[in-house]
UniProtKB/TrEMBL annotation, chains A, B:
Presence of keyword Cell cycle: no
Domain annotation HTH lysR-type: ranges: 3-61
Species in which this protein is naturally found: Dongia mobilis
Gene3D superfamilies: Periplasmic binding protein-like II (3.40.190.10), Winged helix-like DNA-binding domain superfamily/Winged helix DNA-binding domain (1.10.10.10)
Domain of life: Bacteria
The protein, known as: LysR family transcriptional regulator
Record keywords: DNA-binding, Transcription, Transcription regulation
An example Gene Ontology CC term for this record: cytosol
Family membership noted in the UniProt record: Belongs to the LysR transcriptional regulatory family.
InterPro entries: HTH-type_LysR_regulators, LysR_HTH_N, LysR_subst-bd, WH-like_DNA-bd_sf, WH_DNA-bd_sf
GO molecular function, one term: DNA binding
DNA sequence: TTGGAATGATAAAAAGATTTTCCTGTTCCG
DNA sequence: CGGAACAGGAAAATCTTTTTATCATTCCAA
């Protein structure tokens, strides 16, 4: 770098006061420092910036005048960057990148983001949807600051802040033989084929629950598409299990669905906010986290 | 200043290489320096800029990504300023501020500037016209780099580069009794009233020439307006003396004028380029000076 | 499973800048 | 002519930056 911002600052102060001494006072520094800074700029650029009037200040040369304009604009720019950077962690403005487990996202986030947008109109929320493992990878890759997801596959480097516990549900077609019960056991469901939501991690998690009960599922289909699962179930006697419970009881192609709680006592799955333990949270993300807590507290 | 351009450069290099070590190589510096620069930026801004993946590089946080954009733009800006400043003395581009004695300006400069503009289309010439003293003041005040003027009132701090010698002329109305001579002596003219070009310095200079010949002028009028002098002479039997010899033999209001050389041997007045001795000339001004010499050499 | 290679962080020493103090020379002004 | 104001220079002091050396962590291959 042929010059520093500091030198530019001293130069501008000198140009504007027309005196090295006054400039030094203005930037709270000794006079020779300013003198040296200017001398170095002149040497670096190979131009005289000032005409010195011995014992009565100095005035800009044409070259100095040109540099003055540029220097000021650069200093202003630097200040913008500084303000922007200071605000990165502090201000309730800018961008907030949030990761979210994809099946949860459309059920919860539109509402939360709506409220958040009204409270903090300066913050623009950017969403990153992915499966459970992808969300954790995204956190580690710094794609977003925190993520709304289940407490699945967490490692020590992830801090998990529980918002609510979600019970496991099964999905059945509305006209399924078991659909009119209040709740149903996986042991009963196991006689029907299973449609598996085949997302990384989730897939194995669902299977592990079933195996854990000593049962052997008959997997009719598996698909990573959430709506596909619902559709397949709606049109057959198959069942599926998942945590996310959409309010809509209709599949995308218009068939009715039933959602029943599972009878078996299982380790409760938690929905919450995951973040990298070693990264300090920004004020923006804390604000959103607070909103999440408020939202789930009321339930 | 909360940060330096250097720190920003290291930060950008790190962000772009995804590695402190690679960044250090790219900017030709040791790895701990880069590490320290980033740490300081993070401390100053109060935000984590990177997620460190121990032993396998780092990746940007959302905050880091935001800063990256700003940092790059600031560095680009700084580079523009640097290039601009380097060019201040070197490039044949930008602005060239020229001072000029006002009575000389319209006689010579339009032609010279025309040629110069064609040779150096990147340079825009800015003219500062003034009287002899004003031109010297302007030089000292740094308003322009050099000036086209007469060798009058020069001090030691001014370097004068002679272009040509100009003889003293007298101006008379075309129908003046003395107007049909080839040349005329001030001793003859002195019987007629004098119209004095009353510019600072010039005025006293003209008077000193006359007094120096032991003559006493009758000053009919004095005016700082060059065309006014010509007009007053054109409409009377008065005379005036000056160095600048316009090619036009007409006053602004359409009367004919005669220009005659002065017979007396006087110290020749020189037209040339004046500049502050202590200021180093830019390449731009040297180019213009060269053109001036070329122009007057041919005469 | 283990040892080596790669990587970032840290500490201490070295090198380099910046800053300050003190001083000089110039110019202006009463 | 003497004092005040000002820029610039020199040397010492102080701060920063850089480097060297080392450590801890992780990955990868044997």
């Amino acid at each position: 770098m042929p010059f520093t911002l500091k030198q530019l600052r001293y130069f501008v102060a000198t140009a504007e006061t027309g005196s090295v001494t006054l400039a030094a006072q203005r930037v709270n520094i000794s006079q020779p420092s300013v003198s040296a800074a200017i001398a170095e700029l002149e040497a670096r650029f190979g131009v005289d910036l000032f005409v010195r009037h011995h014992a009565q200040g100095l005035s800009l040369t044409p070259a100095g005048r040109e540099l003055l304009t540029d220097a000021k604009s650069l200093l202003d720019h630097a200040d913008d960057v500084r303000l922007g950077a200071m605000g990165l962690g502090q201000d309730l403005a800018g961008e907030l990148h949030i990761g979210c487990f994809q099946t949860v996202a459309p059920l919860i986030l539109p509402h939360l983001i709506g409220i958040f947008a009204r409270q903090h109109s300066e913050i623009s929320v950017k969403l990153h949807e992915n499966h459970v493992q992808g969300v954790l990878d995204g956190l580690r890759a710094g794609e977003f600051e925190f993520a709304l997801t289940y407490d699945l596959g967490l490692d020590d480097d992830i801090e998990f802040d529980t918002l609510t516990e979600v019970p496991l549900h099964c999905i059945l077609a509305k006209d399924h033989p078991l659909a009119r019960h209040k709740a149903v056991a996986i042991a009963e469901l196991i006689q029907y084929p299973l449609v598996l939501l085949a997302l990384p991690h989730s897939r194995d998690y669902f299977l592990s629950i079933i195996y854990g009960l000593g049962l052997q599922p008959r997997v009719a289909h598996e698909t990573p598409n959430f709506e596909m699962v619902r559709g397949l179930v709606a049109h057959s006697d198959a069942f599926s299990i998942m945590h996310s419970r959409p309010l809509s009881e209709w599949s995308l192609d218009g068939k009715r669905l039933a959602f029943l709680p599972i009878k078996e006592k299982l380790r409760p799955t938690r929905l919450g906010l995951a973040r990298l333990r070693k990264l300090r949270p920004t004020r923006r993300s804390l604000a959103f986290a607070a909103l999440c807590h408020l939202h789930f507290q009321g339930k």
